[in-house]
């Protein structure tokens, strides 16, 4: 079994046997009522864990220390949303790696949860750095989207450049061209976002900017608490070829129902240029133990 989707099944307990599904790559438990999960440490191929709207969840499970990205899933020929309204979501499931705990208000020990999730996604980034390429003509790293969403309002200190206030646009003070090479493999960004001041659609897209969409959050009226969202832009991304002195990114929330963009209130952000040495096993262990 490569994928398991048990979203909105009113589950109050997940059996320990789920930790024995060693080929599982995607685990979607969105919208259930359990408070804990068994250890997932042995799921070495797990790359996407969706716990969104598990409103009774109190603790994150143990996650794999190393992820094998040699996927056996095939890339569907078409993700046309006109033919299939859920095609867009499955496309992101295929392309995405990370953890989503949006809408889990009972999570405790948020600092520990954040450190665990950060360490897990960083080691996935390390595997992507080893150039797992999609089995298609696209010739892009797999997965191409690595991100996590978790409750909280404090940016981890690992992101060593912190800025206050951003709206929907953040500015990276240095051009990626300055870091290309020198064993720099990604730009890591972390945004604190909360309820918008008013209900409104996203501002017009500024085509001269680069754009990133927060994955699979519903309309803005669902955002009632602060959350952290971090993501990695790998060195293979087109933004690394920007010639501007600094880099600007514009953000949107995407509605599941109609792929419509909505604005959100970004309170602050942090970023870090990620080098190979940051992904050494000892450094990942230090992050997880904080």
Walk me through this protein's architecture:
The protein has 290 residues and is of the alpha/beta class. Helices cover 13% and strands 27% of the residues. The protein contains three helices and 13 strands. The protein has helices spanning 87-95, 110-129, 281-289; strands at 3-5, 26-28, 48-50, 96-100, 145-151, 161-167, 169-172, 184-194, 210-214, 227-234, 247-254, 261-262, 265-275. The longest helix has 20 residues, at 110-129. The chain is globular, with a radius of gyration of 18 Å.
Brief overview, please?
Helix content is 13%, strand content 27%.
Write the layout of secondary structure elements.
Layout: E1 3-5, E2 26-28, E3 48-50, H1 87-95, E4 96-100, H2 110-129, E5 145-151, E6 161-167, E7 169-172, E8 184-194, E9 210-214, E10 227-234, E11 247-254, E12 261-262, E13 265-275, H3 281-289
Parallel strand pairs: 1-2, 2-3, 3-4, 4-5, 9-11
Antiparallel strand pairs: 5-10, 6-13, 7-11, 8-10, 8-13, 11-12
Average predicted confidence as pLDDT: 76
Number of strands: 13
Strand content: 25-35%
Low-confidence stretches: 77-82, 133-139, 204-208, 216-221, 255-261
Keywords:
single chain, 290 residues, alpha/beta, nine-stranded mixed β-sheet, four-stranded mixed β-sheet, 3 helices, 13 strands, globular
């Amino acid at each position: 079994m490569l994928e398991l989707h048990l979203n909105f099944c009113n589950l109050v307990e997940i059996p320990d046997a789920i930790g024995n599904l060693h080929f599982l790559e995607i685990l979607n438990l969105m919208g259930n009522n359990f408070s804990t999960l068994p250890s997932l440490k042995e799921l070495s191929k797990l790359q996407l864990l969706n716990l969104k709207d598990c409103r009774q969840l109190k603790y994150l499970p143990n996650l794999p220390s190393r992820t094998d990205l040699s996927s056996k899933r095939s890339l569907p020929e078409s993700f046309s949303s006109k033919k299939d309204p859920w095609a867009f979501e499955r496309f992101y499931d295929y392309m995405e790696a990370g953890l989503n705990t949006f809408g889990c208000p009972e999570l405790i020990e948020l600092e520990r949860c954040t450190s665990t999730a950060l360490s897990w996604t960083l080691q996935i980034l390390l595997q992507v750095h080893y150039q797992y390429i999609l089995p298609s003509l696209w010739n892009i790293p797999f997965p191409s989207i690595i991100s996590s969403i978790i409750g909280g309002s404090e940016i981890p200190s690992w992101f060593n450049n912190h800025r206050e206030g951003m709206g929907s646009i953040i500015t990276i003070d240095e051009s990626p061209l300055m870091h290309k090479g020198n064993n720099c493999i990604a730009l890591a960004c972390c945004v604190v976002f909360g309820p918008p001041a008013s209900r409104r659609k996203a501002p017009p897209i500024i085509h001269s900017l680069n754009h990133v969409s927060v994955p699979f959050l519903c309309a803005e009226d669902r955002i009632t608490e602060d959350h952290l969202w971090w993501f990695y832009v790998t060195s293979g991304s087109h933004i690394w070829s920007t010639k501007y002195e600094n880099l600007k990114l514009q953000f949107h929330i995407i509605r599941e129902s109609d792929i419509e963009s909505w604005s959100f209130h970004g309170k602050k952000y942090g970023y870090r240029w990620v080098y190979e040495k940051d992904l050494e096993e000892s450094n990942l262990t230090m992050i997880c133990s904080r």
